Amino acid sequence: MGCVLALYGLTSLAGAARAAPEGEAPERATSDRAAGVPPAAPHEIPADVTVQAFVTPEGSRLRFLVRAPLEAMRDIEFPRYGLGYLDLEAADPFLRDAAQLWLADYVTFYEEDRRLEAPRIVATRVSLPSDRSFASYETALAHFDAPPLDPALQLPWRQALLDVLLEYDIASDESRFSIDPGFAHLGLRTVTVLRLRPPDRPERIFQYVGDPGLVRLDPRWHQAALRFVSLGFTHILDGIDHLLFLLCLVIPLRTLWGLIPVITSFTIAHSITLIASAFGIAPRALWFPPLIETLIALSIVYMALENIVGAKPRKRWLLAFGFGLVHGFGFSFALSESLQFAGGHLLTSLLAFNVGVELGQLVVVAVAVPVVEVLFRKVVAERMGTIIGSALLAHTGWHWMTDRGSDLLAYRFAWPAFDGALAAALMRWGALALIVVGAAWAVSGPFGRLAAKAKGGT
Questions:
Q1: What is the dihedral of CA 94, 96, 99, 104, to 10 degrees?
Q2: Which residues contact 199 (CB under 8 A, 6 or more apart)?
Q3: Among residues 200, 216, 232, which one ends one of the domains?
Q4: CB 107 within 8 A of CB 53
Q5: Among the three residues 216, 245, 277, which one is the final residue of a domain in this structure?
Q6: Are 347 and 295 in the same domain?
Q7: 154-176 pLDDT, tens digit each
Q8: In which domain, by residue range, is 113 found?
Q9: Are 361 and 263 a contacting pair, CB within 8 Å?
Q10: Which of the residues in the chain have pLDDT under 50?
Q11: Which of 174, 279, 307, 380 is the Cys-Cys partner for 385 at CB 3.0 to 4.6 Å?
């Protein structure tokens, strides 16, 4: 991609040289309309937008360097000429307005818990799409002192980049800072790459899609924990496949003694694989996520069919444990992109996410059990209701399983090379297997007795 952008930059310079001999400037119009070229639709939203940014506290100021596509600054008629080339000289006054209206007004910084005052726009400039100055903070900052682009350069305005340097007044560069970025409005899909440069500490990189809400750039442990409890709670409520699996567990077991071993074993199992994945034990092959998604759908189908033929309470907890291992990997996919917000509290955040998942599960079970109980008492007989409800769940899971299985088969599988990396991976998987077997053995006694008590109670 860099080579293509560099080639584009050379081509643009060559075109400028042909269009404007030395000492002469091309004939310009103040807008496309004057040149007979219709302007872009004022509310046309770019499909994909990438924003690059640096956050650097230095002494009594915080510097915020931002690069975004110029076409994302909608409703601003940048001066153009010819076939949509940006008039670099005439556009300069418009850059500050674009920086204020589309970037500075949508970002809020906090020092500890104090909201910082509005920033100063120190500098703005236009860059070529091939420009690489935002590869590091030093080159990005130096770029603002570099000479501006040649006014004779024929740069299509839709391919121009807007670079902005903002400064905020702060009390100390040793404070903890938070940012609430609102760049999702720039495109239908906005990806932001944010780099934090704290003094005397390594650089940290955040990458997210849309608006992540308030991001604590260096959170305390309780701040990270609260964020991930909330994340886990909302994830289980948004994950329809996890909810359907829980419903499969609840339909035949609606007593306290029946639910405790099943829900607890499911919790223990998915906690093991969730934490293992966060520490890099899960395979990194491209086919692994679709495999897990297919197996999650399979878990719904299997448990629903078992409900139809008759659930066995003594073995129910063991099935929940086995499928819980699969669901834990599924939880890890949702968590992986958010761990960047954990700061230095990885384990705390993992445990907090798990707590949030468990709270969500308890809410679902607390609602589902009485609803199912009322339906079986007032609407339909228990056996008939179990068959009808489980058949609907199996039907939904079957469609998911076949669709996800088709996606899985599109990947090409190859045997891994037998080398040191494979040996290390096998050792990690062996350790995980021992943990799984040990956990299953530890809970088999008490869960077996609870299951027997539940059967006796029914």
A1: -150
A2: 57, 58, 173, 174
A3: 216
A4: no
A5: 216
A6: yes
A7: 999 999 999 999 999 999 999 99
A8: 2-216
A9: yes
A10: 1-42, 458
A11: 380
